[in-house]
Model the fold of this input.
Amino acid sequence: MEEEERRSDLQSFRETAEQQSTSNFKVAVNLNDQFQQQRDMKKRQRLHQFNIVPESRLGEKGMDNNDQCVSSREVDVDVDVDSRADTTETSTEGKSMLLKKWFIGLVLSSIMHNESKRRKNLTALPLVYHQDTERNHRLNSLMSAVFLRKYRPSLFLGTRSMMNSSMAYMKPGPVAHNRMREHMHMSRDGATIALDWEGPRIKSHMNNDYLLGKTGPITENIVLILHGVNTDSSFGYIRSIMNSCTNNKWIAVGMNARSSGNIDMTTPRLMNSAYTNDIRNVVEVLSSRQSPNAKLFLVGFSMGANTLVKYLGESALAGNDCLPPNVAGAISFANPMKIDPRNLKAPWNQILTMGAKQQMRQHEKTTSQMTCHHYQNAIQKASSLLHSSSLADISSHIAPYMIRNSNQYPFHNSIGYESSEEYWNEASSLNYISHVSIPLLVCFANDDGIAETTIAAMNTCLSNPNVIIARTPCGGHMGWHCSNRLNPFGSWNFKSSKDVDKSWADRIAVLFISAVLRTEEDATSSNHLNEWKDRSRKDVSYLARDLSSRLDAKL
Done:
């Protein structure tokens, strides 16, 4: 019995051991399967992350319908084949992308190299010409901050004449904080023009109260600024120089020519570059409002500069009394001097022609009130595309009906020219610049496509000892967008009121006005000193004579 019990216990023990070993084997097999599934899942995620094998493809080859793992060798073979093919495609795409980036970088670097080379060739000192007089040398020394500093055009914008000129028209300019408009009626023919006043920013007068609240004579210096053709005082280049003047505690006045400045015309006669009575009336009114010690300066751009120089020459020819005594100096920017629209090249001829036609259509309601049907026909032909394709055609149509004034005192008005050639000859300020009697700064650029100045014109200008010429290697037409060593692209903040962000024209205008004021002060102080010396000599001589008479009486 004992042996049988012992055998049964041994058999039950064996059966229990066999069951435990079987269960352990199953657990080990299950753990191995789980570990294999986890490895396959990580491999699929890693391959999908690098876009080597699509995830759906791995699911088809690496997993069955019951998400059970198949042979690891089979999966590895498929993954290796697909990964090699996709890696080849990816490397090809990467090489093409790198090649494109390399090509774009090469093109940009070559463009920057050529532009930097062009800027370096155009960087030079401005050429200054004047006669050998004491006042010219004094003005030249006071303006050494501009004359002895190289003109550095900005990259892309300052080295291209077309872009430089276009930016002068399109830039917005700084915001005016102290601005007002005055409508002034011309007493000679009843025309109405607009004057845009801008006063200096003073902490106690931040609004228009500074100008509106002033009573009595104006004690500040005034700078009168004339715009070019097809523009007005709201354009960026005018606003910029007005802001530069107000930063120096001067009052800036932008004069809008008749039929400009969004003001209704009160006479059917449009503006032209030969008529100077409008600026003559404005200068007389402004000078009468100033105190005796305040000075008036005149600045003109393009066609406004031509009219300004013609006015100064006419006033000097008529006598010293025709120019108010407080007019101390003038500046001419991009002055064409010799008016002949036939010499204009594309695209400036087409651009200026479109602007002139737009101005005539804008005031068509006023010009149609003329009872003369010949004048109405001339305006219609000048504004039509069929009869007028250039500025020369427009001038030939309306020249017989233009308003004009005599170049002799008292500058009577008359109507019409016999031909457009007669109008161009009379409008050319080159015929009057040799008679200007006040300091005149003439600035122009070599690449100006509108106001091309010849050597003969420069010789005519230099025949006048009051004229100083400043010539830059580039700058376009009224552009002069320059830069410095630290910023080769120049300032693109066209609304800034800082002097660092201003153009070369603004800087030289401020320096010239300051230099003229300094020379006026020096001359006044020297006159006072000479008067004091003369008075002292007279007093000493009187005392010596009195002392000698007393000694003679005692003896």
